[in-house]
Write a structure and sequence with these properties.
Elements lengths: L8 H5 L7 H11 L5 E2 L14 H11 L2 H4 L1 H4 L4 H13 L14 H15 L8 E4 L1 H13 L5 E7 L4 H9 L2 E6 L10 H13 L3 E8 L11 H13 L3 E5 L16 H8 L6 E6 L13 E6 L3 H13 L5 H11 L9 H26 L5 E2 L8 E6 L14 H23 L1 E2 L1 E2 L11 E5 L4 H24 L1
């Protein structure tokens, strides 16, 4: 009979902090009647963000096509969306309940190629685009392709979204962590990258790829064009494939900062020797359609025989879910000026993004006013990665610890802090140790997604809690 001792040890070792012990405790408290503010995961609609009307209307028509010709139902739907649903059914006559091509529906991949062309001003090939169940499935597919031997490693940022560390553990690959530069708006530092990869090679690790999250999760950073160019040149020097996680590309808030894709920079460099995998998703941006699990990845500079193997890998799962593919199509090809649905679309889109921009500024500004707490005002994405300070017990000197001992000590401290924050205030955040942090520092990640009134309460609760928590430690 199966038991804990005879299941896959890699599964036991894998950690996924955004839904870890603190979240499980939050659910227990919620069942007992405690109000919980879930700031642990980028799940917009769970935090009262309304879905975009045009997406739900098109999906309704496709799931029940009889509505398209029903005179009464036609009064509920804009004419352009009825025509959009007809077009989708013409292109995909088997409907939403049948398997599609393994790489995804052809006209949707073509629409994504046109989206990339319009976004970046560069050509894109629909036959190098694969539709997936969210960006996570795309990342897992690429890691499956890249990891040939147990000593193969992927460079991942610290702090990082734990999809990367957890998947590497499950697949038996090696993690090559590189620290992001907290003192330089969380940009990547070439010296740090070089030290990280050289140290890994000395330990017998074979680096095969580098993962970059832009805009950053959990940091909220938006990378500059120069920083992206440096990363691509670094990847070429060490013969690394680049995994560009760009799911937050619509979430950019600070004036004077804009999202620049890795594909755009690579094309402008005119370098055919760097393989690039770029990931996007319907879960973020202003859509927040996490539950529909839609996304894609685009590949540049890849041999045809390797691409054939990637298609074979996708075939093992037959195809990504069709509703997710449709939502991806609607993301890259939204209503246009002149469409009956356009005014509602723009009003909803701008309303969501402007609210996220406001809450990003509010959260960052107000948390920086709390003594012993600091954070970059998020330039993008949906999170703030908050640094906080706690006193040590009298006579205790952590500098005498080894780095491994100190990381365990700090993990215990930030976990205790976040668990107590949950128990006393109902605020559910993720400890920095779940993402990674520099030795000697403590962090937690919170989202900017709660409604504005809850965000104001959240800031007040965090301030009061932090002051009281620090005072309690001082008396121990």
């Amino acid at each position: 009979m199966i038991n804990y001792k005879n299941i896959n040890s890699r599964l036991i070792e894998a950690q996924y902090a955004v839904r870890g012990k603190i979240v499980l405790r939050a659910q227990e408290l919620e069942e007992k009647g405690k109000k919980i503010i879930y700031c642990n995961i980028g799940n917009p609609q769970a935090l009262k963000q309304k879905p975009m009307t045009y997406i739900r209307q098109v999906l309704s028509l496709l799931e029940y096509p009889e509505l398209i010709t029903n005179p009464d139902a036609q009064k509920l739907f804009p004419k352009d969306l009825i025509e959009r649903a007809k077009f989708i059914l013409e292109k995909n006559p088997t409907g939403t309940g049948a398997y599609t091509q393994s790489a995804g529906i052809g006209f949707i991949r073509q629409a994504i190629a046109e989206f990339i062309k319009n976004r970046d001003g560069i050509p894109a090939d629909k036959d190098k685009i694969i539709l997936t169940d969210g960006a996570s499935k795309g990342v897992q597919s690429v890691l499956t392709v890249l990891l040939k031997n147990p000593n193969d490693g992927i460079m991942i940022p610290i702090p990082q979204y734990p999809l990367y560390s957890a998947t590497l553990t499950l697949y038996g690959g090696q993690q090559i962590g590189y620290y992001l530069d907290e003192n330089n708006s969380w940009q990547l530092n070439e010296k740090v990258l070089t030290e990280s990869i050289e140290n890994a090679k000395k330990k017998g690790v074979n680096p095969v790829g580098i993962a970059v999250i832009n805009p950053g999760n959990p940091t909220g950073a938006v990378l500059s064009e120069d920083n992206i160019k440096m990363i691509l040149n670094f990847a070429k020097k060490y013969n690394l494939s680049v995994l560009a996680d760009e799911v937050y590309q619509e979430n950019v808030y600070l004036k004077g900062i804009k999202f620049i894709s890795f594909a755009k920079v690579l094309h402008d460099m005119n370098d055919k020797d760097i393989t690039l995998f770029s990931f996007h998703s319907v879960s973020k941006g202003f859509l927040g359609e996490c539950g529909h699990r839609g996304g894609y990845f685009e590949i540049r500079n890849i041999p045809e025989d390797v691409f054939e193997q990637i298609i074979k890998l996708q075939s093992v799962s037959l195809c990504s879910n069709v509703d997710g593919q449709i939502v991806t199509y609607l993301m890259v090809n939204p209503p246009k000026p002149g469409d009956e649905s356009y005014e509602t679309y723009i009003k909803e889109k701008d309303g969501i993004l402007n609210e996220l921009k406001f809450k990003s500024s509010l959260l960052g500004t107000e948390l920086n006013k709390i003594e012993g707490m600091s954070t970059e005002v998020p330039a993008g994405a949906m999170y703030a990665y908050v640094k906080f300070e706690l006193p040590h017990k009298k006579g205790f000197d952590p500098s005498k610890m080894s780095e491994e001992e100190r990381l365990k000590y700090e993990a215990q401290r930030d976990n205790a802090y976040c668990m107590t924050l949950l128990e006393e205030t109902g605020i559910c955040v993720v400890p920095g140790s779940g993402f990674g942090q520099m030795p000697g520092t403590l962090h937690f990640r919170t989202t900017i997604l709660p409604p504005r009134n809850e965000m104001e309460d959240l800031i007040r609760l965090i301030k009061d809690f932090h002051v009281n928590y620090v005072n309690r430690l001082k008396t121990e």
